[in-house]
Amino acid sequence: MTLDPTDSSQPDSWATRSLSRLIFDTLVILDGRGQLQPALSSTWQVEPGNQRWQFSIRRGVTFQDGTAVSPDAVAASLRSANPNWKVFASGQAVVIECEAPTANLPAILAQSRYGVAKRAGGKLTGSGPFAISGWDPGKKLSLTGRDDYWGGRTFLDAIEIAMGKSFREQMILLDLGKADVVGVAPDQARHAVLEGRRVENSAPAEYMALVFARDRQSVEDGKLRQALGLSLDRESMNNVLLQGGGEPSGALLPDWMTGYAFLFPTAVDMRRAQLLRGEVPQAPAWTLGYDTSDPLARVITERIVLNASDAGLRLQATNSSTADVRLVRVPLASLDARVALTSLAARLGLPQPKFNDDSADGLYIAENALLQSQRVIPLLYLRSTVALGAGLRNWTEAPDGGWQLQNVWLGTEKP
Amino acid sequence: MVVTGARTMTVEVSNRSSLGKPGLGSTTVDDIRRGLLTQLAALGARFVNAEQAAATVRVSLSENLQNYVWVAKLQLGANQASGVEPAVVIVSLPRPETRAVEAEAAAMVLHKTSLWSQQDRILDVAVMERNPGRNPAHMLVLDSRGVVFYRLQDGQWQAEQTLAITHSRPWPRDLRGRLQLRQDHVFDAYLPGVFCRTTATSPLAMTCYEGDDAWPIGTNLFSLNAVFSSSRNYFSGALLPGVGKQTTTAPFYSAASFPRGQSTLWLFAAVDGQVHLLDGATDQVMGKLGWGSDIASVRSGCGSGWQVLATGNGDGSTDTVRAFEVPGGEPMAASAALEIAGGITGLWTETAGTESGGTESGESSAVAVVRNWETGRYEAFRLTLTCGR
Lengths: 415, 389
Known about the structure:
The structure holds two protein chains of two kinds.
Chain A: H1 14-23, E1 28-30, E2 36-38, E3 41-46, E4 52-57, H2 71-81, E5 86-90, E6 93-97, H3 105-109, E7 117-120, E8 123-126, E9 130-136, E10 140-145, E11 158-162, H4 167-175, E12 181-184, H5 189-194, E13 198-201, E14 206-212, H6 219-231, H7 234-241, E15 246-248, H8 255-258, H9 270-278, E16 286-289, H10 295-310, E17 315-318, E18 325-331, H11 337-348, H12 360-372, E19 376-382, E20 385-388, E21 392-393, E22 409-410
Chain B: E1 8-15, H1 29-42, E2 46-47, E3 55-63, E4 67-76, H2 77-82, E5 87-94, E6 108-118, E7 122-130, E8 135-143, E9 146-153, E10 156-164, E11 178-181, E12 187-191, E13 194-198, E14 206-210, E15 215-216, E16 225-228, E17 235-243, E18 246-248, E19 252-260, E20 263-270, E21 275-278, E22 283-285, E23 291-299, E24 306-312, E25 319-325, E26 332-333, E27 338-340, E28 343-350, E29 353-354, E30 365-371, E31 378-387
Parallel strand pairs in B: 1-2, 1-3, 7-29
Antiparallel strand pairs in B: 3-4, 4-5, 6-31, 7-8, 8-9, 9-10, 11-12, 12-13, 13-14, 15-16, 16-17, 17-18, 19-20, 20-21, 21-22, 23-24, 24-25, 25-26, 25-27, 28-30, 30-31
């Protein structure tokens, strides 16, 4: 495991993104409402055609090693993050030339994978609010607040992040007062509340879906995929298996992001599923792949197999990577709906969405077209949940589950 | 949406958004439904029962992070039976700013009047009144970049001059600042590690110095200065010249003063969440008050004459301010809690200034700066107390 924000081999999670943001700044950020705000870049402009962008770089910002965040350093970092872009410094600005019109480039650059990093002598440094003071890969990360951070010194002096702990181990550390924030499994969030713990949930922002390995092969294949989708009891999966830790979804993007996801039905319709199944005399048995190390994926898979069986469909659960259908979990990549949909499509192996315009209608048409391909059967959106220690104050979480630890402080109990 | 062909229709409107919720605007779902029907009727639509309708329009009033999203599903009668998917039309419009809900009246009533709103964080606002009559004439708005001088013209604030703040060190997180109107020059501005002073004569100019000048935290009547930690968002606890013999207290966010007999008592909202009462000799920690980090004093003339305004300590989407009397050293609520849509980021006693350059005895109001979580904008309000119902 590395801390390099551009390392695409890292498992994508809320936690890794949140940690990356503590160390590495991006040129711009998206606020809690998904609106662009300046960060390392104070202003930006685009030339007609949306292919050539210029970002002015904030003056006086330094990396954690004390060297200046120069336009050259930013350009080098962005070239490393996306070799398809032509990136170069121009005065106090950085110019990015994209291969194709990219109207939402600032929102793309707000993703943590475009965090500006300086790589020198095998060392990695950023310009973020915390400096790395210790790093034991995959086990422990120690961060120290920077007095000279351009965005204001963090309230916390230091943070220690222990990695590789099970949810149960994390909860024990919280109970012993050895941790101030721990992760909670989605299906344990309700239980944690009932135990009287301080629990914070994000908006439902981690997508769980079934993804077919291949495009629809025939009309019959399409009918079977539709039957599978109609047979799934998402409400029950959410209420019983997840203990309400998510939201059923029939769409690709969550409703809080688009405002129209309710148009895509989520209700089980077993009668119609059976009718569709009956229209196909020979139905193949599909293999259903899932991450066997993920307990949540296991119980959801078992329920899917059961639901499908009720509709007359045969699914065989497997840990093979070459299954016909895979159960996947993908965290939302951005609070910008177009960036989120584009990224999700890439992660699910779907064609890139085509946006006719910037309207809500245009987004709906693009999303609907992806769903019509029948490569994906939406299931749920899961929440990110954390349990907090009594002394932790000002915990804020972006709707997409991103932590904002730079704003957290530790207080004493009120008398 | 343009409807052609089908003239008889039924329209259903359902609300999935925050429209109609308290504090989120006065437009109701009924208003929207009426407007929609009026426009459709103007296009020739006739509204009939579902059984007689050639088309069914189902409008859902939804919302996303930034906008209201209105979704119309149009199903023609013939298509409904044959299972053809309905046509979908989606439009969006920006969600308006939220409005605060005023709490019910109590013994004293706390009012808020909007002074200013902007995207950048407001640190403090000072209003200079026209003499006589307390009609506002000029307004100063302090933010991280400088002080903007506004003049009231035809009922609108017009920016007249911007005085930039120069500083070499990055501002600390949760930046705070204070404006202080002066008699011998126009104003001073205090920010962490930076002190700015204007010239006394026109043209107005401002010079900023780096240093740890103590900030004025008192009122014209009860003067006190305190050292602000230049890399933090709180006062160090060092007091100048001090409260009686006491020159230090615990690090604190804000302070309020009020008279008690011949002496002055001071309350400090400390960083550790406690409230300290200093009387010049002792530093008492108050019991559980449920106060937030911002307090300020106002001279309302009601009750004992002086009250302390204190924010609540809730973590929700709304903040509250409430007036307290402090008889016998134990704060007692003197007004209902005034709900503010957002989080209060600053609360200062307002020292009213006059256009002629002086400061009035003032202190009858406070300035609250609020970050509206819904819109992300900062809003400055003047808080005043009136006496009972």
